[in-house]
Amino acid sequence: MANRETAVRADKPAIEVIGATKVLNGRKIIDRLSFSVERGEIYGFLGPNGAGKTTTIRMMVGLIRMNEGDIRIQGHSIRTDRKRALAEVGAIVENPELYRYLTGRQNLQQYANLCERPIDRQRIDEVIRLVRLEDAIDRKVRTYSLGMRQRLGIAQAILHRPSLLLLDEPTNGLDPAGIRELRDYLRQLAREENMAIVVSSHLLSEIELLCDRVIIIQKGRFVAERTLKEEATTDVLSFEIELAESDENKDRMAQHLESRGFEKVDDSGRWTIPIRKEHVPALIESLVQDRVPLMQARIRTTALEDLFLRLTEEGIR
Protein backbone atom coordinates (compact mmCIF):
# COMPACT_ATOMS: atom_id res chain seq x y z
CA MET A 1 0.00 0.00 0.00
CA ALA A 2 2.81 2.41 0.86
CA ASN A 3 4.54 1.74 -2.46
CA ARG A 4 1.33 2.40 -4.37
CA GLU A 5 0.77 5.70 -2.55
CA THR A 6 4.35 6.76 -3.26
CA ALA A 7 3.89 5.97 -6.96
CA VAL A 8 0.66 8.00 -7.08
CA ARG A 9 2.29 10.96 -5.35
CA ALA A 10 5.24 10.86 -7.75
CA ASP A 11 2.88 11.60 -10.64
CA LYS A 12 1.55 14.76 -8.97
CA PRO A 13 3.11 18.23 -9.05
CA ALA A 14 4.87 19.03 -5.80
CA ILE A 15 2.43 21.91 -5.37
CA GLU A 16 -0.63 23.19 -7.23
CA VAL A 17 -2.17 26.54 -6.34
CA ILE A 18 -5.64 26.52 -7.90
CA GLY A 19 -7.62 29.77 -7.99
CA ALA A 20 -6.51 30.71 -4.48
CA THR A 21 -8.35 33.79 -3.18
CA LYS A 22 -7.97 35.59 0.14
CA VAL A 23 -10.21 38.45 1.25
CA LEU A 24 -9.33 40.70 4.20
CA ASN A 25 -11.59 43.55 5.33
CA GLY A 26 -13.57 43.28 2.13
CA ARG A 27 -10.49 43.56 -0.09
CA LYS A 28 -9.02 40.77 -2.21
CA ILE A 29 -5.42 40.32 -1.08
CA ILE A 30 -5.00 37.26 -3.33
CA ASP A 31 -7.22 37.08 -6.40
CA ARG A 32 -7.70 33.68 -8.12
CA LEU A 33 -3.99 32.90 -8.16
CA SER A 34 -2.92 29.69 -9.91
CA PHE A 35 0.44 28.04 -10.61
CA SER A 36 2.18 24.69 -10.12
CA VAL A 37 5.73 23.50 -9.44
CA GLU A 38 7.23 20.11 -10.28
CA ARG A 39 9.70 18.14 -8.19
CA GLY A 40 13.33 18.84 -9.02
CA GLU A 41 12.47 22.41 -10.05
CA ILE A 42 13.56 25.71 -8.47
CA TYR A 43 10.77 28.25 -8.83
CA GLY A 44 11.07 31.98 -8.17
CA PHE A 45 8.12 33.79 -6.56
CA LEU A 46 8.32 37.50 -7.37
CA GLY A 47 6.28 40.63 -6.89
CA PRO A 48 6.62 44.21 -5.60
CA ASN A 49 6.06 45.02 -1.94
CA GLY A 50 2.42 44.42 -1.06
CA ALA A 51 1.87 42.07 -4.00
CA GLY A 52 0.71 39.23 -1.72
CA LYS A 53 3.77 36.98 -1.69
CA THR A 54 3.90 36.50 2.08
CA THR A 55 0.13 35.95 2.26
CA THR A 56 0.41 33.27 -0.42
CA ILE A 57 3.27 31.55 1.39
CA ARG A 58 1.26 31.57 4.62
CA MET A 59 -1.62 29.93 2.79
CA MET A 60 0.77 27.34 1.37
CA VAL A 61 1.92 26.32 4.85
CA GLY A 62 -1.58 26.37 6.34
CA LEU A 63 -1.19 29.48 8.51
CA ILE A 64 -3.95 31.40 6.68
CA ARG A 65 -7.19 29.94 5.33
CA MET A 66 -8.32 30.68 1.77
CA ASN A 67 -11.75 32.10 1.00
CA GLU A 68 -11.85 30.33 -2.36
CA GLY A 69 -9.72 27.90 -4.36
CA ASP A 70 -7.36 25.22 -3.17
CA ILE A 71 -3.71 24.35 -2.68
CA ARG A 72 -2.63 20.74 -3.24
CA ILE A 73 0.73 19.47 -2.10
CA GLN A 74 1.64 16.14 -3.71
CA GLY A 75 -2.06 15.79 -4.49
CA HIS A 76 -3.22 16.36 -0.91
CA SER A 77 -5.60 19.32 -0.46
CA ILE A 78 -4.57 21.73 2.26
CA ARG A 79 -8.28 22.42 2.84
CA THR A 80 -9.54 18.85 3.23
CA ASP A 81 -6.37 16.85 3.99
CA ARG A 82 -4.27 19.44 5.81
CA LYS A 83 -2.18 17.04 7.90
CA ARG A 84 -0.97 14.95 4.95
CA ALA A 85 -0.42 18.03 2.80
CA LEU A 86 1.77 19.78 5.39
CA ALA A 87 3.73 16.59 6.00
CA GLU A 88 5.16 17.17 2.49
CA VAL A 89 6.38 20.72 3.27
CA GLY A 90 9.61 22.12 4.68
CA ALA A 91 9.88 25.89 5.11
CA ILE A 92 12.14 28.69 6.28
CA VAL A 93 10.75 32.20 6.57
CA GLU A 94 13.73 34.59 6.60
CA ASN A 95 16.13 33.34 9.31
CA PRO A 96 15.69 29.81 10.73
CA GLU A 97 14.72 29.41 14.38
CA LEU A 98 17.46 27.44 16.14
CA TYR A 99 18.59 26.72 19.70
CA ARG A 100 21.89 28.58 19.86
CA TYR A 101 22.99 26.93 23.13
CA LEU A 102 22.77 23.47 21.51
CA THR A 103 25.04 21.96 18.87
CA GLY A 104 23.92 21.65 15.29
CA ARG A 105 23.41 17.90 15.72
CA GLN A 106 21.34 18.42 18.88
CA ASN A 107 19.13 20.89 17.01
CA LEU A 108 18.48 18.32 14.30
CA GLN A 109 17.78 15.61 16.86
CA GLN A 110 15.28 17.87 18.68
CA TYR A 111 13.42 18.45 15.43
CA ALA A 112 13.56 14.74 14.54
CA ASN A 113 11.90 13.93 17.88
CA LEU A 114 8.94 16.17 16.94
CA CYS A 115 8.38 14.66 13.48
CA GLU A 116 5.66 12.08 12.93
CA ARG A 117 7.71 10.35 10.24
CA PRO A 118 10.46 8.22 11.81
CA ILE A 119 13.88 9.86 11.37
CA ASP A 120 16.90 7.74 12.20
CA ARG A 121 20.54 8.61 12.81
CA GLN A 122 21.40 7.68 9.23
CA ARG A 123 19.03 10.35 7.86
CA ILE A 124 20.47 12.96 10.21
CA ASP A 125 24.00 12.13 9.03
CA GLU A 126 22.77 12.26 5.43
CA VAL A 127 21.40 15.82 5.64
CA ILE A 128 24.52 16.95 7.51
CA ARG A 129 26.59 15.81 4.53
CA LEU A 130 24.12 17.39 2.09
CA VAL A 131 24.53 20.84 3.68
CA ARG A 132 28.28 20.30 4.15
CA LEU A 133 28.33 20.90 7.91
CA GLU A 134 30.30 17.79 8.91
CA ASP A 135 33.15 19.81 10.45
CA ALA A 136 30.88 22.08 12.51
CA ILE A 137 27.86 19.94 13.38
CA ASP A 138 29.04 19.17 16.95
CA ARG A 139 29.80 22.82 17.77
CA LYS A 140 27.33 25.13 19.51
CA VAL A 141 25.15 26.99 17.02
CA ARG A 142 26.07 30.32 18.63
CA THR A 143 29.53 29.89 17.05
CA TYR A 144 28.07 29.51 13.54
CA SER A 145 28.22 32.16 10.85
CA LEU A 146 24.91 33.33 9.34
CA GLY A 147 25.52 31.19 6.26
CA MET A 148 26.12 28.11 8.40
CA ARG A 149 22.90 28.77 10.34
CA GLN A 150 21.01 29.05 7.05
CA ARG A 151 22.38 25.68 5.95
CA LEU A 152 21.51 24.11 9.30
CA GLY A 153 18.01 25.55 8.99
CA ILE A 154 17.64 23.98 5.55
CA ALA A 155 18.92 20.66 6.92
CA GLN A 156 16.23 20.85 9.58
CA ALA A 157 13.55 21.74 7.02
CA ILE A 158 14.36 18.74 4.78
CA LEU A 159 14.97 16.21 7.52
CA HIS A 160 11.57 14.55 7.00
CA ARG A 161 12.08 14.28 3.21
CA PRO A 162 9.48 16.85 2.09
CA SER A 163 8.37 17.16 -1.53
CA LEU A 164 8.37 20.96 -1.27
CA LEU A 165 10.80 23.43 0.31
CA LEU A 166 9.59 27.03 0.77
CA LEU A 167 12.19 29.73 1.32
CA ASP A 168 11.19 33.35 2.02
CA GLU A 169 14.12 35.76 1.55
CA PRO A 170 16.73 33.04 2.25
CA THR A 171 19.72 35.27 1.44
CA ASN A 172 18.87 38.00 4.00
CA GLY A 173 22.07 39.08 5.73
CA LEU A 174 24.37 36.83 3.70
CA ASP A 175 27.55 38.19 2.13
CA PRO A 176 28.26 37.47 -1.58
CA ALA A 177 30.21 34.31 -0.76
CA GLY A 178 27.37 33.06 1.44
CA ILE A 179 24.80 33.81 -1.26
CA ARG A 180 26.77 31.87 -3.86
CA GLU A 181 27.27 28.96 -1.46
CA LEU A 182 23.53 28.83 -0.74
CA ARG A 183 22.70 28.97 -4.44
CA ASP A 184 25.01 26.06 -5.26
CA TYR A 185 23.60 24.04 -2.40
CA LEU A 186 19.96 24.62 -3.42
CA ARG A 187 20.72 23.43 -6.95
CA GLN A 188 22.29 20.28 -5.52
CA LEU A 189 19.34 19.79 -3.20
CA ALA A 190 16.74 20.05 -5.97
CA ARG A 191 18.68 17.52 -8.03
CA GLU A 192 19.70 14.98 -5.38
CA GLU A 193 16.60 15.11 -3.15
CA ASN A 194 14.23 15.56 -6.13
CA MET A 195 12.21 18.21 -4.32
CA ALA A 196 10.54 21.38 -5.54
CA ILE A 197 12.04 24.58 -4.13
CA VAL A 198 10.02 27.80 -4.12
CA VAL A 199 12.09 30.92 -3.40
CA SER A 200 10.67 34.37 -2.66
CA SER A 201 13.29 37.10 -2.85
CA HIS A 202 13.83 40.76 -3.75
CA LEU A 203 17.27 39.95 -5.22
CA LEU A 204 16.22 39.58 -8.85
CA SER A 205 19.76 39.00 -10.11
CA GLU A 206 20.11 36.08 -7.70
CA ILE A 207 16.72 34.63 -8.71
CA GLU A 208 17.86 34.85 -12.33
CA LEU A 209 20.96 32.78 -11.56
CA LEU A 210 19.17 30.26 -9.36
CA CYS A 211 15.71 29.49 -10.73
CA ASP A 212 14.38 27.41 -13.61
CA ARG A 213 11.10 29.35 -13.78
CA VAL A 214 9.60 32.41 -12.13
CA ILE A 215 6.12 33.72 -11.48
CA ILE A 216 5.42 37.44 -11.09
CA ILE A 217 2.36 38.60 -9.16
CA GLN A 218 0.98 42.07 -8.52
CA LYS A 219 -1.88 43.06 -6.22
CA GLY A 220 -2.49 39.37 -5.57
CA ARG A 221 -2.97 38.56 -9.25
CA PHE A 222 -0.96 36.52 -11.73
CA VAL A 223 1.03 38.82 -14.04
CA ALA A 224 3.40 36.47 -15.86
CA GLU A 225 5.35 33.23 -15.71
CA ARG A 226 8.67 32.77 -17.48
CA THR A 227 11.07 29.92 -18.09
CA LEU A 228 14.42 31.62 -17.58
CA LYS A 229 16.43 29.19 -19.70
CA GLU A 230 14.14 29.91 -22.65
CA GLU A 231 14.50 33.65 -22.09
CA ALA A 232 18.28 33.29 -22.12
CA THR A 233 18.37 31.26 -25.34
CA THR A 234 15.80 33.14 -27.43
CA ASP A 235 16.66 33.60 -31.13
CA VAL A 236 16.07 37.36 -31.13
CA LEU A 237 18.73 39.22 -29.17
CA SER A 238 19.22 42.81 -28.14
CA PHE A 239 22.44 44.08 -29.76
CA GLU A 240 23.88 47.22 -28.16
CA ILE A 241 26.62 49.56 -29.35
CA GLU A 242 28.30 52.47 -27.63
CA LEU A 243 29.76 55.28 -29.68
CA ALA A 244 33.00 57.11 -29.00
CA GLU A 245 32.49 60.38 -27.12
CA SER A 246 32.52 62.97 -29.89
CA ASP A 247 30.10 65.62 -31.09
CA GLU A 248 31.52 65.46 -34.60
CA ASN A 249 28.80 64.57 -37.13
CA LYS A 250 26.51 63.51 -34.24
CA ASP A 251 23.29 64.29 -36.11
CA ARG A 252 24.47 62.50 -39.26
CA MET A 253 25.47 59.43 -37.27
CA ALA A 254 22.13 59.44 -35.41
CA GLN A 255 20.25 59.49 -38.72
CA HIS A 256 22.47 56.71 -40.04
CA LEU A 257 21.81 54.44 -37.05
CA GLU A 258 18.08 55.17 -37.05
CA SER A 259 17.92 54.24 -40.73
CA ARG A 260 19.37 50.83 -39.74
CA GLY A 261 16.71 50.32 -37.07
CA PHE A 262 18.77 51.31 -34.03
CA GLU A 263 17.07 53.10 -31.14
CA LYS A 264 18.82 55.49 -28.78
CA VAL A 265 19.08 54.16 -25.23
CA ASP A 266 20.22 57.35 -23.47
CA ASP A 267 22.46 60.37 -23.94
CA SER A 268 25.65 58.46 -23.18
CA GLY A 269 26.05 57.29 -26.79
CA ARG A 270 24.37 53.87 -26.45
CA TRP A 271 22.09 52.47 -29.16
CA THR A 272 20.30 49.16 -29.41
CA ILE A 273 18.61 47.01 -32.05
CA PRO A 274 16.78 43.65 -31.94
CA ILE A 275 18.53 41.12 -34.17
CA ARG A 276 18.81 37.39 -34.74
CA LYS A 277 22.03 35.86 -33.48
CA GLU A 278 23.22 34.67 -36.89
CA HIS A 279 22.99 38.22 -38.30
CA VAL A 280 25.30 39.82 -35.70
CA PRO A 281 28.64 39.27 -37.57
CA ALA A 282 27.34 40.89 -40.77
CA LEU A 283 25.98 43.86 -38.80
CA ILE A 284 29.32 44.45 -37.06
CA GLU A 285 31.14 44.27 -40.39
CA SER A 286 28.77 46.80 -41.97
CA LEU A 287 29.14 49.21 -39.03
CA VAL A 288 32.92 49.10 -39.40
CA GLN A 289 32.66 49.67 -43.16
CA ASP A 290 30.37 52.65 -42.53
CA ARG A 291 33.01 54.10 -40.15
CA VAL A 292 30.64 54.15 -37.20
CA PRO A 293 32.85 55.28 -34.25
CA LEU A 294 32.33 52.23 -32.07
CA MET A 295 33.59 52.24 -28.50
CA GLN A 296 32.11 48.81 -27.75
CA ALA A 297 29.49 46.38 -29.01
CA ARG A 298 27.74 43.58 -27.13
CA ILE A 299 24.74 41.30 -27.01
CA ARG A 300 22.52 42.46 -24.19
CA THR A 301 20.34 39.70 -22.74
CA THR A 302 16.98 40.71 -21.31
CA ALA A 303 17.60 40.87 -17.57
CA LEU A 304 14.96 39.58 -15.20
CA GLU A 305 14.99 42.99 -13.55
CA ASP A 306 13.96 44.65 -16.84
CA LEU A 307 11.23 42.06 -17.38
CA PHE A 308 9.97 42.43 -13.82
CA LEU A 309 9.78 46.22 -13.97
CA ARG A 310 8.11 46.23 -17.38
CA LEU A 311 5.48 43.69 -16.50
CA THR A 312 4.61 45.10 -13.09
CA GLU A 313 4.43 48.64 -14.46
CA GLU A 314 2.22 47.62 -17.37
CA GLY A 315 0.24 45.10 -15.32
CA ILE A 316 -0.09 42.87 -18.39
CA ARG A 317 -0.76 39.15 -18.32
From TrEMBL:
Presence of keyword Disulfide bond: no
GO terms assigned for molecular function: ATP binding; ATP hydrolysis activity
InterPro entries xrefs: AAA+_ATPase, ABC_transporter-like_ATP-bd, ABC_transporter-like_CS, P-loop_NTPase
Keywords: ATP-binding, Nucleotide-binding, Transport
ABC transporter domain ranges (all copies): 15-244
SUPFAM superfamilies noted in UniProt: P-loop containing nucleoside triphosphate hydrolases
Similarity comment text for this entry: Belongs to the ABC transporter superfamily.
Protein name as catalogued: ABC transporter ATP-binding protein
